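User: I'm writing a short methods note and want a consistent example. For Alpha/beta hydrolase family protein, I'll paste the sequence; you return only the C-alpha cells, no commentary, since I'll be parsing the reply automatically.
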Amino acid sequence: MATKSLTINNKFFEISYEIVNPTATKDMVFLHGWGSNKDIMKNVFSSYLKNFRHIYIDFPGFGKSKNEYVLNTNDYANITNEFLKLLNSSKDVIVGHSYGGKIATLLNPKNLVLLSSAGILEEKPFDVKIKIFFAKVLNFLGLKNLTKRFRSKDVNTMSENMYATFKNVVNEDLSSSFSNFSNNALIFWGEKDSATSLESGKKIANLIKKSTFISYDGDHFFFAKNAKDITTRIENGIC
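Assistant:
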C-alpha cells in the first residue's frame, strides 16, 4: 500500500492506493463502490489483465483514505483526476463498480467499464420513503439528533461529513452524462442485483451509443464469481 497527497480547492487529501504490474505501459484504473474499498476490486481482478498497470484507489472517506470534508460526485471525479496525474496515468481503461461507475463515467476514459453502475434514479421502496418523510419532519421540528434512528445500519456508522456527502450523491441522475459519453463502453451487470436494478443497466446501455451490455446470474457483486469471463471480454472489447 502507498499514499499520495494532493490539495484541491484548499482541501487536503491523502489517497491510499496500490499498483499491480507496475512496468506495464497501459493503465487500467479500478474504482470501488460506496461503502467499499480498493481491496475488494484488487482481490477480484489483480490476477488478470497482466498487460495493464492496475491502479486501485481508496476514495476519500473509504478504506485507508481519510476525509474531513463534505463532498459531491464532481469533487470525487476531480480528486481522482488529479490523483491520476500524480501517477502520470493515462486513462486507457477505467473500471467502476456501483458508485465508482459514476465517477468513471465523469472521467471520460478512452474505454469505460461499468459494473452495476449507479447513476440512474430508481423508485424507492415504500418503507424507505416513510423513513425519509419522518426524518424530514424531525429536522423541521429541530430534532435532528432523533433522525439517526431512521438511517439504515450502514449509513448510521458514517461520520457526519460522510453522511452529508452520501445525501449529496445518493439521488443524482447521470443520464445526461451517460448519453454524452462518446467513447467505447462495456457494461456488465448482475441479473439479481437489488442495489442497482438490471433495468437501470439496460437503460445505461441504451444511453451510451458505443456500448456492449452483458449480464450474469448474480447480485450487486456478481463480478467476484465472473472475473475470468469479464476480464476476457475486456481484453477483447477495448480499443
